[in-house]
Design brief:
Elements lengths: L11 H10 L7 E4 L3 H11 L6 E4 L3 E2 L21 E2 L2 H9 L6 E4 L3 E2 L5 E2 L2 E2 L7 E2 L6 H7 L2 E5 L21 E5 L3 E5 L5 E6 L5 H5 L7 E8 L5 H11 L8
Helix pairs in contact: 1-2, 2-6
């Protein structure tokens, strides 16, 4: 990417979205929800992965939404889709049958082994906060070939060990954050592999609850292109609901 092609002005949410989009290959089958992951998928389709297939938990297979859906039940997901299936078919025929290359997940807590907690904060029997629960997350974590987590770093959200293991971290390939990128090492423990421009290792360390290893040489995440930012702001999310 040349300097002329590189965007000079972008938000951290936009950077996270672009990095997530670049993880998708043309032809990938992707299990996606709403928010930044959904935006990343549509950005990938508009740029380098026109033949990717989007599958939503609500039953839309091969969805081609013409706007950013506010929920997985949005009718925009049905229009033009290849198939509308039952939730049972989505999980049994597609996910459990090994058809999903990438699954996007998030959570209230992510620990050093990539395990995700969306169940409780604090002890299970007397929690400080009771969260929505797994939904389809544990199934996605178990059966998608690669799991991508897109979330912001802070010490409360990244403890050394989650309070409750809702979803396994064994298939987590990358954790894309507002400071850099974490990837599992040989023993499965997340380590820092790339920093965003202007961010230091010390700043990342301050926002995780364990002694964070770093992979050398530590790289710098590539900036978004001007075209990627234009697509996000003008075509995909003109109201900037997700990329502020």
């Amino acid at each position: 990417m040349t300097a002329a092609e590189t965007a000079s002005d972008y938000t951290l949410n936009e950077l996270m979205c672009v990095l997530a989009a670049r993880e998708i290959k043309d032809g990938d089958v992707v299990f996606v929800g709403i928010g930044l992951p959904n935006l990343a998928c549509n950005l990938a389709r508009a740029t380098h992965a026109p033949n990717m297939t989007l599958i939503y938990e609500s039953g839309a297979v091969g969805a081609i939404p013409d706007r950013v859906p506010p929920s997985i039940g949005d009718p925009a997901l049905v229009t033009g889709s290849l198939q509308v299936a039952s939730m049972a078919d989505i999980f049994q025929c597609f996910l459990q049958n090994g058809k999903i290359e990438i699954g996007f997940l998030g959570g209230a807590q992510v620990d050093k082994l990539g395990r995700i907690n969306t169940t409780v904060v604090g002890p299970y029997d007397a929690p400080k906060v009771r969260l929505p629960g797994s939904g389809g997350a544990s199934e996605i974590a178990a059966h998608a070939k690669r799991v991508l987590i897109v979330t912001k770093l802070n010490k409360r959200a990244f403890p050394e060990a989650v309070d409750f293991v809702t979803s396994s971290g064994k298939r987590v390939a990358k954790v894309i954050t507002n400071m850099g990128v974490l990837e599992p090492g040989p023993d499965g423990e997340l380590e820092l592999t790339a920093l965003h421009r202007g961010v230091t290792y010390a700043q990342v360390q301050e926002n995780v609850g364990w002694r964070l290893r770093r992979r050398e040489p530590l790289s710098e995440t590539p900036a978004p292109s001007a075209r990627e930012i234009e697509l996000l702001r003008v075509k995909l999310d003109p109201k900037r609901l997700h990329i502020k």
